[in-house]
Amino acid sequence: MVLMKGSPDPSTSYPTTILAGLSFDDCVSQCFSNDLCVASYGNNKSVCYLYLMGDISKIKTDNTSDDKIGMKMQKTCTTCPLTVSDLLEGVDNSFDANVTSSYQILTKETPGYYRINYSNL
């Protein structure tokens, strides 16, 4: 999981699960243990939002916010990237699902946002 400050864009993202009373760390763990979860989102209100494949399309990045998002990544790095964008950009994350087979996070299209591009079988 890659953790960063930001939030799902509410006009393009709809959580599958909302859990009250969870810390952000527990929220990230919930997503990590769910094979189809791609992102977890939390804020200082102890509410956890889980997004499955296709439920989240755009992430607003904001380094000044208390909002945090965790993105599931299937990448092993041999060196530490300098920025989150360098870590996320264009990595193919494959999943064994009925409709969606993989997704990529595109960080360079719109300043202040990351876009998630899903690929179908």
UniProtKB/TrEMBL annotation:
Record InterPro entries: PAN-3_domain
Ranges of residues in domain PAN-3: 1-103
SMART domains in alphabetical order: CW (SM00605)
Domain of life, source organism: Eukaryota
PANTHER family, per the entry: C-TYPE LECTIN-RELATED, PAN-3 DOMAIN-CONTAINING PROTEIN
Name this protein carries in UniProt: CW domain-containing protein
Lineage, highest ranks first: Eukaryota, Metazoa, Ecdysozoa, Nematoda, Chromadorea
